[in-house]
Amino acid sequence: MTSADFSRNYSTNFLDSVNRKLPGVTLTDQTGNPFQRNLDYRGFVASPVQGTPQGIAVYQNGVRINESWGDVVNWDFIPEKAIDRVSLVPNNPVFGLNAIGGALSIQMKNGFTYQGVEGEVFGGSYGRVQGSVQAGGQKDNISAYAAFESAYDRGWRDYANSSHVNRMYVDIGARNDDTEFHVNFTGASNLLGNVAATPVEMLNQRWSSVYTWPQSTMLQLAFVNATLSHNFSDTWSFQGNAYFRGFRQTHVDGNGTDVAPCDDPTSLCIGDGLPIFGPAGGPSVPNTLGNAFLGEVDRNSAATNSYGGTAQLTNSDRLFGHDNHVVMGVSVDHGDTKFTATSELGTIDPNNLFVTGTGVFINQPDAGLSPVDLRATNTYTGVYLTDTFDVTNRFSVTAGGRFNYAQIDLQDQTGTNDLLNSSNRFQRFNPVIGGTFKITSNLTAYAGYSEANRAPTPLELGCSDPNHPCMIDSFLVADPPLKQVVAHTVEAGLRGSWGRDARTGVLSWGLGVFHTLSDDDIIQVTSALGVNNFGFFQNAGQTLRQGIEAKLDYRIDRWNAYANYTYVDATYRSAITLSSPNNPNALTNDAGAQFVNVTPGDHIPGIPAHRFKAGVDYNVTDAWKVGADLNVVGSQWIIHDDTNQSPKVPAYSVVNLHTSYQVTKNIEIFGLINNVFNQHYYLHGAFYQTGGFTSAGGLPNLMAQLSDPRTFVPGMPLAAYAGIRAKF
Asked: Which of 41, 80, 460, 675 has the fewest CB atoms nearer than 10 Å to its CB?
């Protein structure tokens, strides 16, 4: 994808642009915020939500931007106007940890690749107002580029899911005939409101309703990167970078709680009659809350400083008289994170489900809730080499691999939880081999095999004990060992084109199959305690993601049309017993815990099998363009319905329209309508604990009338936007 694909003429944000154009990609939503959605590619995810198992490596200017804590990807940090091009790369272990499902590489603009000044303003539904300015240029061998973006979105859900986004990108560069050097800076300060999933019975009454709030996330970034490329000769070159990344996140989340009056109702307890303050057997908190309904305000913060770099050599000397291309390199990435978390007892307003803190902080390790102060350090080292050899002028073979070594250390800073202290080491060599064969000048066949690994994140390592579950994404309690994930991918297909002139048009197409078998896949499991947001991570044996991708693109005269389809069959391949409270189809053991027995062939929840996209653009005149896009996403099993017994999250289709008009050479106006038919659809589904909220005074439970355990994140209704762009 090029910068033109990210134009506001087609979509309002980066993720919608990627979703619109790339086969195999869908977007899911756990937060109810348009800036914090999950990118799903072939059943693997890059997500900004802590606690989501990650399977895609994301790079910006050669730096892996999966954050050290949790490997999350904060899409809201990326200055979208500054994007020059994006590549989605499956089947290549050279991209290091997390690339088990692929890698997304983002290359930013600089003054050599962009010259001029552009300003843009657009706005529309739900209070959306967004503006940007970018400027770039060069003088002799020096270049400069800068982009600034600011956006406000009130959000369409009830109450507080507004977003304030401010971000910037600056690049200074210099070059001569052999060398090019750049220093760039990415900065952001964003406040994002979250509303998450809502019980289906509430959505049936009001599509914009929310279930407990406030929920908000404050995110800040200071990211400096220096890149250097140098040609030693016509065939030898060097590429390298060094970076520092400062990341800060604070999260506030109003939730229900497991706190209730003790057997003696003058005190408050949690779990099996445990006092909510101090160790088990300690003094209980007096119950002075009258008839208030009980909730809690969960807070966590992560402060990470990470730094590292990559050094790479490239050689294109001919070998045995044949073209040959060798890439070899080494990378080191180090992160140091301070993570803190607290849970404050709260009261719930029965009119709007707002949770207000009471000043009483819950401290009960035996129930899985206690303040956390943790330091996590991780160092990831990689050494890689690939060689592409042209056997003939029609047949090329690529072979190579990467060795990854991961060091992850956790240290409790409170002095009260030695279970969190651990030292973990993971290592693996991942090979890759593949080939392309040009059958004709317009038809190419390809095939390849690769392996990739993912080390458990500090968050996953610190929350992997089923006997001491964590409040995802807030709390860390204990540290049994987790194994690293190893993915084995086979991929093959055909791609080609037809037609070369304006009379016949140009048709390009591709058809491929893929098969990724993952060993010791890491999944998030709901705690047997049955409390909302509690869970832990565990290895789930083997999982399989396999399928078909097909794509077409046709251009003729004033028309441009595209269509692509992906089928993803994502299944468990090992028998495993999983805790599954709140699941209406779960079994109950002698201890009263609910569980399900997953068998090989059960589908992995949250992964739609069918994904179809199509679109058309038409130049009505040289100045006026119109277009439409269709996005169809198939049904998927509800999260934690691992035995596939409850009704699926229904399939949905959305039609978007766009238009633009070039008023003058330098001024363009544009407009978009998303979800033009105002479809109601769900982006994400899970189970939750029914039964309402406990009253401190014994009143009937608030929201006790809700009996359906399904909860969903609803899709945005019809929304319209318009804007103007000026270039100089």
From this structure: 675
In this structure, are residues 568 and 513 in contact, taking their beta carbons and an 8 Å threshold? no
Q: Which two tokens stand for residue 517?
A: 């078998």
Bond preceding residue 473 cis, omega within 30 of 0: yes
Residue 436: half-sphere exposure toward Cβ, Cα within 13 Å: 15
Alpha-carbon distance 538 to 543, whole Å?
13
SS3 692: coil
Torsion on CA atoms 78, 79, 80, 83, rounded to nearest 10: -90
Evaluate whether 554 touches 560 at the Cβ level (below 8 Å). Answer: yes
Residue whose pair of structure tokens reads 């892996």 in the numeric block: 64
Per-residue model confidence as pLDDT tens digits over 456-515 = 888 888 777 776 667 655 444 444 578 999 999 999 999 999 987 767 899 999 999 999
Sign of CA dihedral 7, 12, 18, 23: negative
Q: Compute the distance between CA of residue 419 and CA of residue 60 in angstroms, rounded to an integer.
A: 36
Q: Quick one: which H or E segment has residue 203? A: helix 200-205
Beta bridge partner(s), residue 355:
348
The encoded tokens of residue 108 equal 């930013």
Amino acid at 489: T
Choice among 171-175, 240-244, 519-523 with the minimum mean pLDDT? 519-523
For 152, phi then psi, to 5°, come to -130, 135
The three-class DSSP label of residue 566 is strand
3-state secondary structure 525-559: EECCCCCCCEEEEEECCCEEEEEEEEEEEEEECCE
